Give the backbone structure.
Amino acid sequence: MNNSLYDSTVLHVSLIAGVGPATIKIVLESIKQDDLVQIYRYSIADFCALGLTYDRAAKLVSGLQDRSLLEKELALIERYQISWAVLGSADYSSLLAQIEQPPAVIYYQGQNLCASDKAIAFVGSRKADAYARVVIEKLVPPLVQDDWVIVSGGALGVDSMVHDQVSKLKGKTIVVLGSGLLNWYPASNTGLFRQVIQAGGMIVSCFPLQTQPIAANFPARNRIIAGLSSGTVVVQAARKSGALITADFAVEQGRQVFAVPGSIEYGLHDGCHYLISQGAKLVSQVQDITEEFGYRPSQAVGDDVQIQLPLISHAMNSMDQQDQAILDNLLQSRSTDDLLTLVDISLDDLMQKLFDLSLQGKISQDMMGLWKRI
């Protein structure tokens, strides 16, 4: 929290509406770090002399005159104990700093995991099925054991499965949000995000703290996921998918892209097959990932994370009777107590199954605490 006056100046600039990474990059590259605070005295002409357009220069001058922008953000940072780092600082991700026009500021909660270059992104469909879980349970544990940081976007489906798996293994995972840190999204993953922090993980955003999760933010979120990672693994994705946008950003950033193949009967694998046809590396075992970076996974995964990959057809149809009974009873909204009377299951087992089905994107819980099938 002991950020410098330079850091505060960068933060202030990042809060000005209409001033993006490209503009900030010009400013930071044109002015010495020790002199940056002098921009509060700059005129429109001074900024134009740096190569900015008149419109951008005018927005900078106007925004810098509004000290309340910075004061309000700093007050929220202190109140909610948010950590933050600016481009060029030791706390800022070295991988992210290498991309074209990196965000000027990153906000984070939990442990700062940005120092490691052994970071790999796992992304995929919000409608992920049992096969995606099988893939994650095969690939993620050996990476966790070898101290890789696993990056994903905190969404339902593949992202949630990944974060849940890593945090249960007490590994290192980074959740990248498409909203400010005071608006965790999706709200149904609040418990999962807390679990990530408690396990030593990290939640990151490049957006001001109170930013709402609007659709326009998510391509930028995907760009950050790719930027924080040495490579991106697409677990399961349709041909038109946000996961493919992340893969595109990885390619633009010169990072490796991996894709897991699946059945040609299911549209959820079409995006992965397309990526493979375009040159992404096919992944069927963890060595397919690690060998690209000169690492070899440990010979054995610990006893607590032993995994086996069943046949695809079995994984696709591995919904047990209790899961199906829960889904059958959620064609209308019901409380946990209602489900307990309708399904032959203990409360502990019911809560675990509700959590798992929620991670898979099959059910959701509303503000009243009622569950409903998606």
